[in-house]
Amino acid sequence: MIDTHTHLYYQGRLPGELPGIRPEGLVDRMDRWGIDKCVVLPMESPEYTSGYCLTDWVIQAGERYPERIVPFIHIDPRKPRCLGLIEHFAKHPLVRGFGEFVDSLWFDDPLRKRIYAKCGELGLPMVFFGAGSNSVDEVGLPRLETCLKEFPDSIFIGHGPRWWNAISADDDGRCGYPKAPVVEGGAADRLLQEYDNMYADISSGSGYNAITRDPEFTQGFIERNWRKLLFATDYLKPGQDMGHVEWMRDTPMKEEHRAAIAEGNARRILKLD
Ligand SMILES: [Zn+2]
Q1: How many Å lie between the centroid of ligand 1 and the Cα of residue 80?
Q2: What is the pLDDT of residue 58?
């Protein structure tokens, strides 16, 4: 299995906040859970957590465990020389993608759009987050859809409540964790089917909630979108277990679909073979 969404180091810098995970702790967890490779996502934007995880540190972790850790890069969209930094880090042979976006700019902000264009040019899929004050988009994800059209060569990987609550047509926009059965016709389901460059990772409480809140709906959702879904956990604190591994192993689905979601799709879009 390939976990396409994990983190390292300082998510928090105050007592009582998340202590973060060291590379050896991540690899130990992978061994215990039967995970072959983990994508590690740096976080260089000041929003969302009080800590940072620099791209440099993630690349160093990848160099230490080149068979296990797949480094992504992240540069805050407002950073001076943002595109030059992306070009610089993208030259590293282990780097496979960009993210995660955790800034509070709108999805179609020009500062973000220049990154979408650059990552499309460099072949780096991008992971984005959206929730609460980091709202990113509106109900129905119109700003995301504009960018899917404008940047057809750029791969967007949906994650977080803003994205996953759009699985249901009755998304109330509050970015919570709704438990009600899914109403057919949600924007996330439609965008996965209509756009070749739209993917989604099942990580975190939001992804897990979306794929478990209505098991009957999930069967059809997998049938329609199995080539676009990525196994992922958002592992970011020691001892965390949110059920994604069990879901991936135990949920009834065709073995072809399970292999694609657990590993095959990630291998293809991250060019891991
Ligand atoms: Zn994350």
Answers
A1: 24
A2: 97
Tell me what pLDDT residue 231 has: 98
The tokens describing 120, both together, are: 């499309």
What's the gap in Å between 194 CA and the centre of ligand 1? 25
Q: Give the CA distances from residue 264 to residues 4, 47, 93, 234, in Å, rounded to whole numbers and listed in that order.
A: 12, 32, 21, 19
Contact status, residue 193 vs residue 225, Cβ threshold 8 Å: yes
How many Å lie between the centroid of ligand 1 and the Cα of residue 27? 17
Q: Is the model's pLDDT at 133 over the cut of 90?
A: no
- Can you tell me the mean pLDDT for 62-78? 98
What's the pLDDT band for 15 if we cut at 50, 70, 90? confident
Q: Ligand 1 centroid to 38 CA: how many Å?
A: 12
Q: How far is the CA of 106 from the centre of ligand 1 (A)?
A: 18
Rounded percentage of the chain residues whose pLDDT exceeds 90: 86
Q: Which residue has tokens 């976006």?
A: 101
d(CA 166, CA 171): 6
Distance 19 CA to ligand 1 centre (A): 15
Under 8 Å between Cβ of 212 and 204? no
Cα(104)–Cα(257) distance, rounded to whole angstroms?
Answer: 34
Sorting pLDDT into bands at 50, 70 and 90, what band is 39? very high
Q: How far is the CA of 88 from the centre of ligand 1 (A)?
A: 23
Contact 230, 1 (CB under 8 A): no
* Structural element, H or E, at residue 158: strand 156-158
CA of 158 relative to ligand 1 center, distance in Å: 11
* CA 136 – CA 141 distance, rounded (Å): 9
**CB-side neighbour CA atoms (13 Å) of 269:** 31
